[in-house]
Amino acid sequence: MSASPENELVTRRRLLAVTGGLVGAVAVGGLTGPAWADDRRPGAGRRRWLPGDHHVHSEFSVGYDNSTTPPKPIIGGDAIYPLSVNATHAQQFGLAWIVSTDHGGPLHSKLDAEQRYPSLLEARRSVPRVLQFYGMELDTPAADHSSLIIPKVSTERDILFQLESRFSKRDPFPADPSFDTEQKMLEALRVMRQLPHKPLLFANHPARSATGLGVYGQDTPAEFRNWNDTAPEIAHGFEGAPGHQAGSLRKDGSIDPDGERGGYGNYPTMGGFDQMTARLGGLWDSLLGEGRRWWITSTSDSHRHYSEGGSDFWPGEYSKTYVHAGWDYADILDGLRSGRIFVVIGDLIDQLDLTVSRAGQAQGQAEGNTVSVGETLTLRGRDRDAEVEVRFRVPRTANAKGERPQVKRVDIVTGRVTGPAKDRSSDTNPTTKVEARYGAGQWRRDGDEIVVRHTLRDIDGPMYVRVRGTNTDELEPQPDPHGSDPWADLWFYSNPVFIER
Predict the structure, then answer these.
(1) Structure pTM?
(2) At what angle do helices 117-126 and 83-92 cross, to 10 degrees?
(3) What percent of the chain has pLDDT over 90?
């Protein structure tokens, strides 16, 4: 590989790709044979919670030699690992699926089609237990980055080439300022909307460029509303918990007192989550309060492992996006599109079922409709109450740090759905509140699951319900200071259930 890193590192990475060895990672007992792997034939198997990561970089996130015309790509110049190494680590840490999301630069679309795609096909062959989507981290016109996920179809390479070459703002050479406009982004979404096999898009690290709480940078509330209005089946959400969470760790895993979680150098993450998600009644709640089906995810943004001088965990080592789906490309993509998702950092839990039902007439038993995350419950006639049930499970094995963190509290969060915002830049929902908090003395065990039940009473209009939990004593997630330990401050979040009346 021309202009790649030192020969010794290249040789070691190639060896890893063949042997499946680990670089600076902890092999965790039980993770190489997760329950979902009982039936690994694509298209087969019942729906279950499948962990994954939609934001993973490889050596094809390149650097550039700007002394040539056009600039010459430097393989491994930004992220350093072959795709098969990423997939091997994803398997080691229990993931069922990942998305290859390299970002671009001048004429990167050609590199993707000619070099990365064949490498992906080889990674699929060498690590078949991990479903590997083709995609990219789009250099989003007039915004920051976005994960663009391409359906696994025979034309996937052509689909991405056309989208990247036409709409990635850094792809043209010479540079073209017209690619870096919101008009260009909306054009891209309209083109995606017309495709027979529709991709999916999540904004990455949306408030990383924010300079304060609610003082946004490259990504703004109005942009997200415009994207979702233009292509609601494609522009579906943002990273709730960004990657680069090992930014506060040294190579040996000790704390760097000057390090930052997530690379959020202006305004920090909050409990490891982006302020757009973590702030109660903030932007996410504002979008949900309009009735938008806007989902959150959690990713590694893996470029280089912290043990090799980077700021990243391996895919699945710290952050997981769980999708309720069969072990099948199409169903996983459908689950992401439909919001059958919960997210967690630090393996605080490995199962979360949030269901809402019409309240029953006797002994509080539920009857009739029961819906789960991403779905809508309709109350009719005299129905005014709804029963919320939360079931979660603490993993049976230690996390990648060798610890078994315990959930201290679960919060049930509600908000009203009041329709389109008059102010497109609005980032608050004043109706959002913590409906109830439940600690260890207030829930019950059912086998290896922990169960919380709560009744919502006198529902008089449309609303949504979501759940979060933590191993901390914080009533609300607080800004993460420099040098904070990512393993000590853990949260999980469900996506919402909607209720109509």
Answers:
(1) 0.92
(2) 40
(3) 88
